[in-house]
Design goal:
By secondary structure, the protein is of the alpha+beta class. The chain has six helices and eight strands, in the order H-E-E-E-E-E-H-H-H-E-H-E-E-H. The termini are far apart.
Length: 217
């Protein structure tokens, strides 16, 4: 009996490992279309796995959020709920007092300049495995903090002419009214196996900056 259970466990583990390897080796197709104008706020996302054998659809607008899974032409609704219901559950987290916050030892972390340095080093690498077949849009973006808006716009300006097809993307910084407005359409494939080396590099960069910050460099 134990031998049978062990063989069954190894068989299931081998199948899962094979699926993960195939998922890493086979390009993942995607399509994103969003309309964030004043009249409409909606977007649709399509993710195709294993050359379209498995597809994941997400559709969101003012009225409803739908998540559907299609496997071999069989469509299953995974999630379907109105956006107003998403925040119906109130958070029960306990609010900590100032004394409780002061008792907790402060951990050494990265400063804003460190995160900007990481973004400049890592963003080009993180975007490299993505091959855009279609990328076009006209967006206006703003955050509640004008400094964040300026930082995001600076990163966009740095990357726009570094990658192909990015010339058709127009992003305007809105320092007055926070939010996102405009339209965007993108489609392409993602090579997930390339992210293995990128994640290792990213972790090493993060640990190096954190070590230098602890040493006071």
């Amino acid at each position: 009996m134990l031998i049978f259970i062990a063989k069954l466990f190894l068989s299931i583990l081998s199948i899962l490992l094979g699926i993960i390897i195939l998922l890493l080796l086979i390009p993942v197709g995607f399509r994103f279309q969003g309309d964030f104008s004043e009249e409409e706020k909606n977007f649709t996302v399509t993710v195709a796995l294993f050359y379209g054998v498995i597809r994941l659809f997400m559709d969101f607008d003012f009225h409803v959020l739908r998540l559907q899974l299609v496997f071999a032409y069989v469509r299953l609704t995974v999630y379907h709920k109105a956006p107003g219901d998403l925040g119906s559950r109130k958070s029960k987290r306990k609010v900590k007092t100032d004394s409780e916050k002061s008792e907790k030892p402060q951990k050494a972390g990265l400063h804003a300049t460190d995160w900007v340095y990481l973004a400049r080093r890592l963003l080009p690498r993180l975007l490299k495995p993505i091959r855009f077949k279609t990328l076009q849009g006209d967006l206006s973006l703003g955050f509640s903090n004008p400094a964040t808006t300026g930082m995001v716009y600076g990163i966009y300006s740095m990357l726009k002419y570094r990658f192909r097809n990015w010339e058709k993307i127009t992003l305007r910084a809105n320092f007055v009214q926070p939010g996102i407005r405009g339209e965007i359409l993108s489609a392409g494939v993602i090579y997930l196996h390339q992210y293995i080396s990128i994640l290792i590099f990213s972790y090493k960069q993060y640990r190096r900056l954190l070590r230098n910050r602890k040493d006071g460099k």
